[in-house]
């Protein structure tokens, strides 16, 4: 994951942020308990959104706790956990492992290979528990890798493949909400991929790394306005899917904060940096 799917803290009430943070800390603890301390390095704000969305949709209460950790060694802080915390931990570990393997294949980064090796045995459990979901995710990752090698200039193709990954992550099970969750995840994933490519634009230009935004239409057009138009379209479709879900209370305002404001924070920082 990339860290785009998070809250806009300034627009949340204190109690809302504390509740959001408790889910995040609960995920951190779940990663440690299920997969060991090294798995905590895969921790992602993006997966906190997944936990909260599924918890509200399926009306799943979360157990509360108090823990100390390396980030808060002197004072206990609250955590919130339920079955979706375990699911998010599994998906988080899987995606982090596959990303490390991809980095090794494409860039021969030895640190990433070593970290992937440290996770390999633990990922086997995830693959055994979710065989169909894991196959769909790995197929999409392989497609992204192939498109990168072919230097595909149409960003919609790799972004769509990443969207399929997020669709699988959000579709927790086959039920009446599966199609809507997949649509939400698909456009959210496309948003994240495009925003990440935009953020890496100058870095990839200097290094010569693959970035479809550098290859589009032989560099014609205004990349800044084009990217913003694409992102608005992606988040519009994502938000429409979200509003079709029967979510009317609970943490709905935190979820709306993420989708309508939080996802734009990092993009706006990138945009301002490019202006300067």
Walk me through what this model shows.
With 276 residues, this protein is mostly helical. Strands 1-2 form a two-stranded antiparallel ribbon. The two termini are 27 Å apart. 39% of the residues are buried.
What labels describe this entry?
11 helices, two-stranded antiparallel ribbon, 276 residues, mainly alpha
If strands are numbered along the chain, what order do they take across the biggest sheet? 1-2
Order of helices and strands, N to C?
HHEEHHHHHHHHH
The low-pLDDT segments are none
Overall body shape: globular
Q: What's the main sheet like?
A: 2 strands, antiparallel
Topology:
Blueprint: H1 14-35, H2 45-57, E1 63-67, E2 77-81, H3 83-107, H4 110-129, H5 131-149, H6 156-170, H7 178-199, H8 201-207, H9 212-215, H10 223-244, H11 252-275
Antiparallel strand pairs: 1-2
Helix pairs in contact: 1-2, 1-3, 2-3, 3-4, 3-5, 5-6, 6-7, 7-10, 7-11
Outline of the structure:
The protein is mainly α and 276 residues long. 70% of the residues lie in helices and 4% in strands.
